[in-house]
Design a protein that fits this description.
The complex is a heterodimer. By secondary structure, chain A is mainly α. In chain A, 47% of the residues lie in helices and 8% in strands. A two-stranded antiparallel ribbon of chain A has the order 1-2. The longest helix of chain A has 19 residues. Chain A is elongated and about 80 Å long. By secondary structure, chain B is of the alpha+beta class. Chain B has 14 helices and ten strands. Chain B has an eight-stranded antiparallel sheet, with helices on one face. A two-stranded antiparallel sheet of chain B has the order 6-7. In chain B, 53% of the residues are buried. The chains are: A mainly alpha, B alpha+beta. Chains A and B meet through helix 2, helix 6 and helix 7 of A and helix 5, strand 6, strand 7, helix 7 and strand 9 of B.
Chain lengths: 165, 380
């Protein structure tokens, strides 16, 4: 396809504009695009991509009418506000706790894909319930150490060892 | 092993060998993994980070990799050593300048590293020279299997391997190649490469990863999608579609330079030779930029049989005359040595003291001048 402006070079940029429901298409080459000041942004860094995706996500309030705005992961205490700020989650359990918000975001970040395909662990993976139990035990262990309740801490440590077997 | 044992030579995957080595400098595969039953690092106390570090370090040090491994405690390492490890692509900036207990296990031949407590608990990396993604993937999978015999990773049947950032979810695999694309740049067509990458949902980064510039016309191209596509499919798409397409773009640009713009090509190469032979102060950025043009000239001779006045001059400098192939191989190794050994942290580790910017620029210029001097061809 030839460029609609210079009629010389190949059209490599294809613009579709919809104004008041009327759709217009334009096919132009890189050279003419540059002359027309049509920016062709070629590279979006992954963190920018993520924050763009986050920015278009509905806010907590929009999703839940405000009631779940302070929804925190029972295991790690993580909130969506923190996720927006840091771009990383608090614990594996967050994928379930915040599923409603994360699922569309994950789908966008992975070109519409939603389910794992590929390698699975050789051994039967520790099931989700057990993983959460371990996380909870570790959380309680930290609290026990902080409050210097060493007897409880010792018990919890034994339980963690048992759960890891 | 001491870092100074490594710093006076280039690593195996940067020696200019391997398939398609004129354009594909190296292949790398990274895996992101997290221990089951632990929080992600952003919510871990230092005590929990230490527990994770100890556990993973023990496992990594016990693997049978066919090479000796050593451990560097990154949080305790001097700043110069951290910069050095980043320059050699053995650790990421995130690990080097992050917080809390963290470290890296490195195979002595540098084809494998395991970063512990980076963004995820474990980031594994396998590197090879040239286009060898399938071999990287095979080795990585074997190593990952060995690790999984000893520990459980956070995994969900729906989302696969669970990572701190949802963009790494699923396979947790990041496949990347380092490409040398000087002709696309010289002929003003580099946007073509950027656009192709974007259309294919790939990320382009500079020489030292996210947020860095494309020094020396080197670009890292990597996959962004990690969920819903198998490791094998990602790798095979790179090897069968993406890499051949971009290599063909670059080769077409090289042919164009030869047939239609040989003055431009010779001008760039001759200027690079003149500056590198005569400069007394040269910044790292400038040296990388100029060395790129020498690499282009040498490879155009070796792979395309190109012969222009500037390329012939370059060949004499690099000790041509012992048979074209050997001469070319020697030259690319020389260029890559100059490239890596004149990076700021390498310079300082090798001279045994810290240098300010001017001191580094002077030493860098001296090393390059002596390697490219006509009296003593750089047969290092």
């Amino acid at each position: 396809m030839q460029c609609q402006i210079c009629n010389e070079r190949d059209a490599t940029i294809h613009l579709t504009e919809i104004t008041d429901g009327v759709r217009t298409e334009m096919h132009i080459c890189e050279h003419c695009a540059a002359e027309q000041d049509i920016a062709v942004k070629s590279h979006i860094p992954i963190n920018e991509l993520l924050s763009n995706l986050l920015a278009v996500q509905p806010t907590d309030e929009e999703i839940s009418g405000g009631s779940d705005q302070k929804l925190a992961c029972p295991t790690c205490g993580f909130t969506l506000a923190q996720f927006r700020k840091e771009g990383v989650l608090g614990c594996p359990g967050d994928y379930e706790v915040f599923e409603d918000v994360l699922a569309p975001l994950i789908e966008k970040a992975h070109d519409g894909r939603t389910t794992h395909c590929g390698k699975v662990p050789l051994r039967t993976p520790v099931d989700a319930k057990k993983q959460l139990e371990l996380l909870n035990l570790r959380q309680r262990l930290e609290a026990a150490v902080r409050s210097e309740d060493y007897e409880l801490a010792a018990q919890l440590r034994d339980k963690i060892k048992q759960a890891e077997m | 092993m001491k870092l100074t044992d490594m710093s006076n030579d280039i690593n195996e995957w940067f020696n200019g060998s391997g398939p398609m080595a004129d354009i594909v400098i190296s292949s790398r595969i990274r895996l992101a993994r997290n221990l089951a039953g632990h929080k992600f690092l952003s919510r871990c106390s230092n005590a929990e980070k230490s527990e994770i570090l100890d556990k993973l370090r023990d496992v990594m040090m016990s693997l049978d990799l066919g090479d000796k491994v050593f451990y560097v405690s990154v949080d305790k390492a001097p700043s110069l050593n951290k910069h050095f490890l980043v320059e050699r692509h053995l650790i990421s900036r995130h690990l080097a300048f992050g917080k809390g207990p963290r470290g890296v296990v490195i195979a002595e031949r540098e084809f494998f590293t395991a970063m512990i407590n980076e963004e995820d608990h474990l980031r594994l990396q396998v590197l090879k020279a040239g286009c060898q993604l399938a071999q990287c993937a095979q080795q990585m999978n074997r190593i990952d299997d060995m690790i999984e015999e000893k520990i459980d990773f956070a995994f969900s049947p729906r989302y696969g391997y669970l990572t701190a950032c949802p963009t790494n979810l699923g396979t947790g695999i990041r496949v990347s190649v380092m490409l040398h694309l000087p002709a696309l740049k010289m002929t003003g067509q580099i946007e073509k490469f950027f656009n192709a990458a974007k259309d294919l949902s790939l990320a382009v980064r500079g020489l030292f990863g996210e947020g860095t510039e494309a020094a020396s016309d080197l670009y890292q191209l990597s996959n962004q999608v990690t969920l819903g596509v198998s490791e094998a499919d990602i790798v095979s798409r790179f090897e069968k579609t993406i890499i051949p397409e971009i290599v063909e773009y670059e080769n077409a640009a090289r042919r164009q330079l030869l047939s239609k713009q040989s003055d431009l090509l010779d001008d760039k190469i001759s200027r690079a030779i003149a500056l590198l032979q005569n400069a007394h102060l040269i910044s790292s950025q400038e040296a990388l930029f100029l060395l790129s043009h020498l690499r282009l000239g040498i490879n155009m001779h070796k792979y395309m049989g190109a012969s222009t006045p500037a390329i012939e001059k370059l060949r004499t400098l690099c000790g041509a005359g012992d048979g074209p192939d050997e001469a070319s191989r020697l030259s690319i190794t020389t260029i890559n040595r100059l490239f890596m050994l004149t990076l700021p942290a390498h310079l300082q580790l090798n001279c045994g003291k810290t240098l300010d910017a001017t001191g580094r620029d002077a030493l860098r210029a001296q090393i390059i001048r002596s390697a490219l001097s006509q009296d003593t061809p750089g047969k290092s």
